[in-house]
């Protein structure tokens, strides 16, 4: 080789150089594609589907409770007349609740009757009796409460009767009676017969 002579790559070297350029261009294109598609690393885990929380259990039905001083009946016989007494029957200061049971009786049905000595705020009366009962109470027929109140002598006019529904907080709300009550007025007492449309507080106010 002569000094000062220029060295030109052979045809073979030119072909190799061209192939290297093509490979590099292909690799660069592949790298750009991976970057654009989010590749080039470990594939991320697919998103997990949020689990549906289990439904909350249904609340247990409330159990009817009555004060120990109340008279109680549970269940009963189908198509029978049941009677509950409360108060002082001998002293003409009492109440009697009667009802006829339906053809199908729930053995868990419960009805209570008791005399109320501490009147809820906003109520009116000289005597008061409360009926507490499960929902089966309204399936019974001929429901009536008879309240006897002692008097001095003979009343000149009929007393007043009031009905109140009682909330879970003990608050009393006046409500209409299921029917007009009737009265038996004799010397020493008055007897009020009242249709017991709903459980609640029944009061009698003397004139």
The overall strand count is: 11
Assign an overall shape.
globular
Task: Tell me the strand percentage band.
Answer: 25-35%
How many discrete structural domains? 2
Number of H- or I-type helical stretches: 1
Structural class by secondary-structure content: mainly beta
Mean pLDDT: 80
Strand order of the largest sheet: 1-4-5-11-7-8
Radius of gyration: 45 Å
Structure description:
The chain folds into two domains: 29 residues; 135 residues. The strands form two sheets. Strands 1-4-5-11-7-8 form a six-stranded antiparallel beta sheet, with no helix packed on it. A five-stranded antiparallel beta sheet has the order 2-3-6-10-9, with no helix packed on it. The radius of gyration is 45 Å and the shape is globular. The chain contains one helix and eleven strands; from the N terminus they run H-E-E-E-E-E-E-E-E-E-E-E. Helix content is 13%, strand content 35%. It is mostly beta strands and 207 residues long.
Per-chain topology:
Elements (H helix, E strand, L loop, with lengths): L10 H26 L34 E4 L6 E8 L4 E8 L9 E6 L11 E7 L7 E10 L9 E7 L5 E4 L6 E5 L2 E7 L4 E6 L2
Antiparallel strand pairs: 1-4, 2-3, 3-6, 4-5, 5-11, 6-10, 7-8, 7-11, 9-10
Concise description?
The chain has 207 residues and is mainly beta. It has one helix at 11-36, and strands spanning 71-74, 81-88, 93-100, 110-115, 127-133, 141-150, 160-166, 172-175, 182-186, 189-195, 200-205. It has two domains: 10-38; 71-205.
Essential attributes:
207 residues, mainly beta, 2 domains, 5-stranded antiparallel beta sheet, 1 helix, disordered N terminus
